[in-house]
Structures are given as C-alpha cells and as structure tokens.
Write a structure and sequence with these properties.
Elements (H helix, E strand, L loop, with lengths): L75 H35 L2 H9 L10 H30 L4 H35 L2
Helix pairs in contact: 1-3, 1-4, 3-4
C-alpha cells in the first residue's frame, strides 16, 4: 500500500520560539529590614548601596526668609493724641465761648446799638477797651488751643504710621483738623448773641 520508493513526508518546520520574558531584579531592601508577613528567600542576594551613595532622599530647601512685621506697640500714643485733640477742641472751645460771651456782653453794655454800628463800620478798636483783659484771655486760650491741636495732629499721624493706637490716632487727626473751625464758629456765635442781647437791653 505504500510505495517503498516514496520518501517519508517532511514534517513542517517548528514555529520559532519566543524568548523568555526578562526576570525583574529583586526589590531593594535595606539590610536587616523585612516586611512583616514576608520571609526573605534564602537564595536571593541582598543588594547593598554602593559606597558614597545616599542612604535616603536628599533634604529639601528651607523656607525663604520672610520678614516679620514689626510688633504693634501699645495704643498709648494714639490715646494721648486723642486726649490732646479733645482738650483743644472741646474744653478750650467752651472756655473761649464763655470769654467771647463776656466780651460781647461787656461791649454791648458799654454803648448803644447805633454807636456800636458806627464804630464797627469804622474799624474802631477802642470798643474793646472796656474788655481788654478778657480779650487777652481769649488770645491766650486761642494760642493754647492751636498748640495743643498741632501737637495732637502730629502725634496722631505718628500713631497711625507706627500702628500704636491707630483708631484713636485717626480720631485725633480728624478732631484736630476740625478744631479751629469749631472754636471760631462757637466763639463767634457766643459773641454775637451776647452783644445783641446786651445792646438791646440798654
């Protein structure tokens, strides 16, 4: 049935073999350290770090220098400025108004209204002769209020800049700026009312 003359069939060539996958190197472990639950295999060598190598991660940079703001001092500087501003604006305004009232009353009582109008229109300062002592006290009060107001203004600005009582310092600056207007307005009103009352009652 088979022909002896016929040669044996040649088997097909074998498929090319694939190379074996590479074996991953063993994980690095520090000497003497083993994770709990896992035993190190006796046949796996422990790799040591080469000489001169870092044993751990390098340290990071330190935080950059940030200057700290100066510590805020006490609020005494601003409070003193506020006290000076109140003294100049409130107390000395009341004193000036009382003196202006007395000056107006003294001038109005010393002359009649028609003569007073003629002397004022002629810029005759002799109308102040009966009350010259009171006029001197008004000048002293005015200069004292001015000096205290300037002091309060400067000290309030310093308190704001140095953050030593900033709120009272701001209040002191505002009051010191408004002080001369309040002083002049209140004194003028008191003087005119007293002058009119005294002149009409004569």
């Amino acid at each position: 049935m088979t022909d002896p003359q016929q040669s044996n069939p040649v088997p097909p060539p074998a498929a090319p073999g694939y190379p074996a996958p590479p074996v991953a190197p063993p994980a690095y472990q520090q000497p003497g350290y083993q994770q709990s639950g896992y035993q190190q295999q006796s046949g796996t060598p422990v790799h040591q770090a080469p000489p001169g190598a870092f044993s751990g991660p390098a340290g990071g940079y330190t935080a950059p220098y940030a200057p700290t703001p100066p510590a805020a001092g006490g609020s005494g500087l601003g409070r003193v400025a506020l006290l000076l501003a109140l003294l100049a604006t409130v107390v000395l305004t009341i004193v000036g108004a009382v003196l202006a009232w007395q000056i107006g009353h003294g001038i109005g009582a010393s002359t009649d209204l028609t003569t007073l109008e003629n002397r004022v229109s002629g810029s005759d300062l002799s109308i102040l002769t009966p009350v010259r002592d009171l006029v001197l006290w008004v000048e002293i009060t005015s200069w004292t209020a001015t000096a205290l107001g300037i002091w309060a203004l400067v000290q309030g600005i310093v308190a704001i800049a140095k953050r030593r009582g900033r709120g009272p310092g701001i209040a002191a600056v505002v009051i010191a700026v408004l002080g001369p207007f309040v002083y002049g307005l209140v004194g003028y009103i008191a003087f005119v009312i007293a002058l009119g009352l005294a002149a009409t009652q004569r």
